[in-house]
Amino acid sequence: MNKILKCKKCSKYTMKPKCSCGGKAVTVKPPKYTLDNKYAKYTRKAKLEKRQKQDLL
Ligand SMILES: [Zn+2]
After folding, report:
1. 36 Cα: distance to centroid of ligand 1 (angstroms)
2. What is d(CA 1, CA 17) in angstroms, rounded to the nearest whole number?
3. Which domain covers residue 33, as residue numbers?
């Protein structure tokens, strides 16, 4: 499994923890996953709130 790292200094993508420019490279999470997680969280919350309302009635 290859980790994609992004240099903090020059914003270049690299596989090494240290970029060729000397800057520190950090792990980047694909934005798609973040969006999906956010969406799933919303859906789950909406479902939970609906159920809680039904229980109260
Ligand atoms: Zn760099």
Report:
1. 29
2. 15
3. 5-56
- Which neighbouring-strand residues pair with 18? 24
Q: What is the spatial distance between Cα 34 and Cα 12, in angstroms, rounded to a whole number?
A: 21
Distance 2 CA to ligand 1 centre (A): 18
Burial of 25 (C-beta count, 10 Å sphere; 0-12/13-18/19+):
buried
- Write out pLDDT tens, residues 13-25: 999 999 999 999 9
Which pair of tokens denotes residue 20? 């060729």
Query: Structure tokens of 16?
Result: 């090494």
CATH code for the domain in which residue 27 is found: 2.20.28
Q: Look at the pTM and tell me if it is higher than 0.85.
A: no
